[in-house]
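Researcher: Let's try something more involved. This one mixes different molecule types, so please make sure each is placed in the same coordinate frame as the others.
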Amino acid sequence: MEATRKILELNAFDMNAAEGLAPEVTSLVRRRKETFGPTSMLFYERPLNLVRGEGVWLHDADGTRYLDAYNNVPSVGHCHPRVVEAVSRQIGTLNTHTRYLYSNIYTYAERLLGTMPGPISNIVFTCTGSESADFAIRVSRAVTGGTGFIVTDNAYHGNTSAVTEISPSSASAEPRPPYVFIVPAPDTYRERPDAVGARFAKDVREAIAKMNAAGIRLAAFIADSIFSSDGVFPGEPGFLAETIAAVHQAGGVYVADEVQPGFGRTGEKMWGFDRHGLVPDMVVMGKPMGNGFPMGGVAIKPNLLEAFGSKSGYFNTFGGNPVAAAAGLAVLDVLEEEGLQQNSFETGAYLRSELRISGADSVGDVRGTGLYIGVDIVTDKQSREPDRDTAEKIVNGMRDRNILIGIAGRHGNVLKIRPPLCFNREHADIFLDGFKGALADAS
Amino acid sequence: MEATRKILELNAFDMNAAEGLAPEVTSLVRRRKETFGPTSMLFYERPLNLVRGEGVWLHDADGTRYLDAYNNVPSVGHCHPRVVEAVSRQIGTLNTHTRYLYSNIYTYAERLLGTMPGPISNIVFTCTGSESADFAIRVSRAVTGGTGFIVTDNAYHGNTSAVTEISPSSASAEPRPPYVFIVPAPDTYRERPDAVGARFAKDVREAIAKMNAAGIRLAAFIADSIFSSDGVFPGEPGFLAETIAAVHQAGGVYVADEVQPGFGRTGEKMWGFDRHGLVPDMVVMGKPMGNGFPMGGVAIKPNLLEAFGSKSGYFNTFGGNPVAAAAGLAVLDVLEEEGLQQNSFETGAYLRSELRISGADSVGDVRGTGLYIGVDIVTDKQSREPDRDTAEKIVNGMRDRNILIGIAGRHGNVLKIRPPLCFNREHADIFLDGFKGALADAS
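Model: All components are placed in one shared frame. Result:
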């Protein structure tokens, strides 16, 4: 618990440290504390006071612009005009719910499902990734008759009561329920990369055996295929196949959490599970789906949805409304027309290769796929000892250079770099220049 | 279970009956079935194919307009220009999350909390009423150390795993958990109205005693103060006071679910709990908050939020984003400037008195507060026997007259009338004219 708490507080502003800040920022911090309470977390030693966003740029009230290499929600770029136009037009025309017919939601559903493997041909719309993961939990239990879940040891899948239970990275006053089993994430830096698939599958099989020995049947294995909150471990394409076979053999379902890797982020494919040649039973979607318009969804095999729906009801008031459909369609249009998946592939590869060149002893590992990059900060390359303090210094040093990144991993030492997908080579060069300075200052 | 299933399917379109419909509707139904699956529920014997909304009107693809007396999400009117303008402007300017500072979310939080009783001075933003209720469950458990919940027998509080457990009206394959206790809703039509408060409090005290006898401590009593899904029972102002005193005495918290009664809907007050002179420990908000922009929130006493937040993390990616703040502020502006609470009070009172005049034997009871009205349809006034078939006929008869209403109640016999709050006397007269015809045809 203690370790988890500390990690949640990484890169957090100290709410009692407002005095050294600009008067406007101090005033906002005070108003925040009064309304949100003192435990609501704010980023950075010196918090950002934002007023405008555009593409990969965020602007603060003082006119400073920040290169955004952190935010994956505005995936096609902050305030993309196509999305803005689509939302503005639709919200002024019709905004209701899916108990009436309107054509654009079916058009969107068809387009989105068209990017999935054939067996995944139904969809349930929600408003957030958390609601999506929660629905996937309900369905997993209903269709398998099992209650057990297997997740990685620093996974994060969302914030509802049920999803918090399967999110070991979340601080929670409650102990982990007896039906949630954890396995160590595939740490391709500290394990042998070519053996990690077999080790992971072995751990999952052992978890299933332990679970069954305790009289609990497997409902689902759920993972985000790049293991982002575990510290960004995309691994070799295909390494998850043995694990998923074991899950299916035990009667469980495989839920792919695509909130992080989905919508072209990995560069290689539209979906993270596609990198592994897998067909999930359910696909959980959220964050980048509407470029910031609150929307989520679960793509699902029809037999599972029908088995669930024949006994249980589910209706989501805002889910799949006409404005969400318009936002979602605009995102798919922009992804295609601007070739953002390809850009993610190319710019991501360029960034990783340049980051590796730095050669600093604290840069232990640079990994990722597309524009989801983890930089494992260590005390030295020999010991590979996680170095959280230096990682935090780098994050704040980057912020001082007007570049935004974050932190991931169970040791809180992995720099998390996941800019909007329109982040190009020019932006990468600005980033690398800042990184050099922040790294030098932190070392 | 069977009874619940039937009620969920009330006013549902038969997905296999598409053949008699217009070709365009048939095609949409087919596309819906292929993408959403056959268990996704659509309203009406003849579903609506909508293309446009404005004020209290919805328009279908054939150019027919429908008087909307059902939808409480677009509470200040479909596509209200002030909300449309606010959302369109903000979504093109900045849309990020609450780990950065931006002033409009604090302005909104201050304005919203300013409408609450003094002790409720903190807020946590979410995206939906379901997320809000789910968060309230987490907090209730964390701060009381209890796990037990008390709800009414046909309550609906949302769709997550945890919230479904405390929503007896939801069809669910899973049995009710041992820590959820139900009490009969305050049926002011079939009980003595002046005795319902004492009876309800007695049942809640007994539920607490049973719970304690089973070794379970009370976490929370949660109710929507107009008991909407139970069949619309606002009751006499103040009748809940004895119940809440018992809840507090047992160490539980009182969660007011204001998704239905909040934001001026009751006409008498801004909030449903205000009608009873109560100060809840938490206030759950959703549906009308952003007039259709997906947003929700939990207003909370600061000591409870701090007790929760000191041990548990909560972050909602889309919750409280700048666009939600803009939508929420516009809704508060319109409510005030257009005097919608007062209109709700006056038009609601007018509608109820005119509905009572009909004198039909099947109109057993007309009740409600403001523009939340329930009409209890019975076989005859003597027996007060719920008559679901006639209620369904009236709903479809109203739809044939281009007027939209719904159904509530554990017997599925209560007409649910809750139009946008800009529904005025002229609209009420159109409504009453249609009602006369639909009632005559159904009788």
